[in-house]
Backbone:
């Protein structure tokens, strides 16, 4: 593991303090001072590059991030989560590594953002990928629910209470009947006090389904309930209460149908019925997004990456579309989410191969910012600064460029300093898991 912030300790703290004082003075006069020259080269790579109006500039007033490698030499890095798995008060990380490694890792956090690798599962062939963490068996500790792509399995691994003792976690099957199992969400959908699982199934299954936890989650496969079938290339699966009625609804994307949808949870007696509503069915190639109250009005909106696998110069059916259709956006829930398509607000255009977007207050100013990844063209991690009006202009800050196949991104405080950090993984061409420590201003 490499920690770049512990290099170049010969940099003078006095020089740094003088630059900061001068920067503050000039800022009060309406002048910006860039003090990147006082930073080690590795730190400079983590300082935000601001982009507005298509031009790249350095922004000394924004928060800065330092970049840290957690692990490399993956066979294929896709699927991460942050949670306090060992109950020591800090956030650990889980990370999947598929064939031929066939591993699920636990990275134990020392509370400062230094991670020790443990193995949750090994020799599980094919594609362990996206996963979520929750207390599946109700014993007070956090377990891992994970997809096994291609084979069509959903699995969960049981936390024994001593997750870092280097014993493999006990493996349980939720289903073997979800071809191309791709993404998961955990919630109590039928309000019986137990965590259920919802999942998407990529191109091999083209369906959304949920699986009922009947209170005996270790006793064989769970009952499957189909939500929708014949949906071409289901990807995102996330849980949130979009209509504010106290039960948990679902967010999904259907990439080849250009559809962002939510499914209204309508519990009736002992069953759950799902009513489909479109958030958007006009935007190109939606990939991954998450629920968040972007405008602070008390209802749940959606932040989303659009344009994954869309190449404007290719011969695909959307060739008439432009690179500006590769977007990071958010959809506004106006309090009447069932009344029609949601209003789309563009955060960034020309974010080629946009893969995933997630929201959090990165700069601590009380509003939600967004972190996102761009996949192969060229492979990037960036965050987007909300200046107080989510419907207004945003500023893009580039954290890492030319990081091929960047995919899942999460936001979490990984070193316990009260500031939200960013972690992401990248598969073919990079094979890494990294995090960006939020250094503040």
Residues:
């Amino acid at each position: 593991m490499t920690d770049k912030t512990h290099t170049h300790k010969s940099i003078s703290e006095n020089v740094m303090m003088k630059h900061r004082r001068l920067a503050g003075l000039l800022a009060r006069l309406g002048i910006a001072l860039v003090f990147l020259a006082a930073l080690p080269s590795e730190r400079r790579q983590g300082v935000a590059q601001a982009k507005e109006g298509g031009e790249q500039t350095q922004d000394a007033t924004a928060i800065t991030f330092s970049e840290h490698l957690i692990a490399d030499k993956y066979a294929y890095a896709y699927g991460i989560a942050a949670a306090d798995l060992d109950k020591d008060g800090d956030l650990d990380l889980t990370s999947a590594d598929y064939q031929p490694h066939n591993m699920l890792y636990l990275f134990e956090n020392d509370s400062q953002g230094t991670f020790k690798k443990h193995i949750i599962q090994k020799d599980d062939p094919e594609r362990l990928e996206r996963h979520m963490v929750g207390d599946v068996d109700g014993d007070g500790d956090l377990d891992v629910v994970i997809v096994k792509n291609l084979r069509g399995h959903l699995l969960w691994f049981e936390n024994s209470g001593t997750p870092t003792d280097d014993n493999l976690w006990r493996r349980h099957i939720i289903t073997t009947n979800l071809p191309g199992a791709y993404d998961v969400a955990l919630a109590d959908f039928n309000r019986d006090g137990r965590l259920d699982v919802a999942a998407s199934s990529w191109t091999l299954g083209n369906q959304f389904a949920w699986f009922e936890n009947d209170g005996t989650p270790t006793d064989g496969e769970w009952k499957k309930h189909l939500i929708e079938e014949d949906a071409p290339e289901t990807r995102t699966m996330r849980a949130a209460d979009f209509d504010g009625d106290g039960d948990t609804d679902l967010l999904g994307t259907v990439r080849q149908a250009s559809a962002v949808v939510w499914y209204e949870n309508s519990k009736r007696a002992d069953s759950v019925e799902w009513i489909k509503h479109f958030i958007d069915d006009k935007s190109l190639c939606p990939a991954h997004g998450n629920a968040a109250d972007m405008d602070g009005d008390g209802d749940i909106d959606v932040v989303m990456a659009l344009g994954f696998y869309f190449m404007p110069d290719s011969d695909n059916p959307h060739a008439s579309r432009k690179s500006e259709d590769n977007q990071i956006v958010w959809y506004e829930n106006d309090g009447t989410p069932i009344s029609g398509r949601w209003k789309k607000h563009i955060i960034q255009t020309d974010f080629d191969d946009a893969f995933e977007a997630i929201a959090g207050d990165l700069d601590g100013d009380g509003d939600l910012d967004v972190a996102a990844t761009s996949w192969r063209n060229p492979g990037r991690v960036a965050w987007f600064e909300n200046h107080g009006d989510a419907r207004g202009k945003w500023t893009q800050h580039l954290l890492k460029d030319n990081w091929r196949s960047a995919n899942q991104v999460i936001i979490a405080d990984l070193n316990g300093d009260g500031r939200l950090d960013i972690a992401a993984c990248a598969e073919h061409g990079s094979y890494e898991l990294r995090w960006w420590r939020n250094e503040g201003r």
Summary: The helical segments are 13-28, 41-46, 202-205.
